[in-house]
C-alpha cells in the first residue's frame, strides 16, 4: 500500500508554507477529528500542552474529546517561519465551555512533515484567557 500524498509537499516555499497553514486552519475548523487526523502520519508524534500522543487513533480520540468540551470552536493560524520540511505557526482560537464562559487560546506550533506532506511531528504550546462574549474577535459559525 502506498502512502497518499497531502500537497503541498516539502521542501516548502513561502507560498506553499502559507497554503499548508491555511489547509490546516480549514481542516481544524471543521471540528471533524477523522478528517483532521488524515493530515498526520500513522505514527505521528504530538505534544499538546501537557498531553503526549502517538498515532492517528490517539489524535482522533484527543480531538473528539477536545471538541466535546470546547464548544463553538473557531481557529485562526498564521505562518511564523518555514525551512525545508518544517513550519512554525502562531495561532489563536476561541471557544466556550458548557457553562457559556468564553475563552481565547493563544499558542505556537512546530510542525515537521514527511516526504508525502503528512505531518509526523506536532508540538503545541497553548495558553487560555477567559473573555466575555463581547470580546470575541474570530468570525462566528
Question: What's this entry about, in short?
Answer:
The protein contains three helices and six strands, in the order ααββαββββ. The chain is of the alpha+beta class. The model has no long low-confidence stretch (mean pLDDT 96).
What does this protein structure show overall?
This protein is an alpha+beta fold. It contains three helices and six strands, in the order H-H-E-E-H-E-E-E-E. The chain has a six-stranded mixed beta sheet. A hairpin with a 5-residue loop joins strand 5 (102-113) and strand 6. The mean pLDDT is 96.
Feature tags:
141 residues; alpha+beta; globular
Strand order within the widest beta sheet: 2-1-6-5-4-3
Structural class: alpha+beta
Q: Total helix count? A: 3
Morphology: globular
Helix content: 10-25%
Mean pLDDT: 96
Strand content: 35-45%
Helices and strands, with pairings:
Layout: H1 14-28, H2 33-37, E1 40-48, E2 51-54, H3 56-69, E3 71-83, E4 86-96, E5 102-113, E6 119-131
Parallel strand pairs: 1-6
Antiparallel strand pairs: 1-2, 3-4, 4-5, 5-6
